[in-house]
Amino acid sequence: MHRPPAVRARGITKSFGEVIALGGVDLDVASGQVHGLVGPNGAGKTTLLGLLLGLAVADGGSLEILGTPVGRTLAVPDGVAGFVDGPGLYPSLTARQNLAALASLRRYDTGPTASVDDALEQVGLTDVADDRVRGFSLGMRQRLGLAAALLTTPRLLILDEPANGLDPAGKRHVHRVISGLAANGTAVVLSSHRMDDLAALCSEVTILATGRVVFSGPLGKLAAESGELDYRLVTSDPAAAHRLASETPGLRVVTGGEPAQTGLVVRGPEPALDELVVRLVGAGVALRELGPVMTPLEAAFLALTATDVGPEAETEARTEARTAAGAAQIDEENSR
């Protein structure tokens, strides 16, 4: 049986005074899909998420949610849940009391006690269910916000930075919950600055810049949009690798410092990288590590949103991305 898309937006506009937050945005999200929403600060992500949750109304365009046209009122169909700018919680209540109060206010038919316990178990908060929320870390509050959304058994789940503040173990837990919901038919719209989270969860992504869509489609299509990628190269002979990389047409060495300590970072298209590998093998240099410094999503984000910055700003952004990727890898290793 054909199911309507969970979200169908056409030409959505929204302004705040003279500031254009959304300037003609189209968006399609299928049922059972995790759709990423990406963009720099001020791109319009929060405004768009607010529209999907019924927290604001569009100035123009058409919006259908779960097959129902959304008019100029602060309302969305049943089955929509989530949060923007962090979940709203009562700090003086426990995690269980927060969810029980929410379930009671919304009069869920499933019965508050069973639903609350199940939601807490799904997000891994059973052990702290009777602790007051004021003592929760940011990551624990994020997980409790996700539990609150799960009370509705949502068909469309809107999440703004759900992995914010999570340690690697907590992040994996949340990833499993989101993936499980999508596998059971729930559509998820996920906004995050963590490109690794989006790459791990999303089948499609929409990139916003200054209130407009600059890319929307499957992650696989981003390779064509990402331009040249940076690759980290570790070999048995750093000096020889540096020389061979410098001599390979289409490649540029972008590493600072001593390659023996930092490894070698080269930038270029995949065919040039393949040629370098052939040259390394031919010279008897052992290849110990080779991989992209940033994901294609990160590279595409920079390429598609940095239209008004110069080479220095782009280089700085790439450096920050490499630093963030290294920190994420360290966190992952420490959690094992």
TrEMBL record:
It holds the Pfam family ABC_tran. Keywords: ATP-binding, Nucleotide-binding, Transport. The keyword Transport applies. Residues 310-336 are annotated as: Disordered. GO terms for molecular function: ATP binding; ATP hydrolysis activity. Residues 7-235 form the ABC transporter domain. Belongs to the ABC transporter superfamily. PANTHER family: ABC TRANSPORTER, ATP-BINDING PROTEIN. This is ABC-2 type transport system ATP-binding protein. It comes from Nonomuraea jiangxiensis.
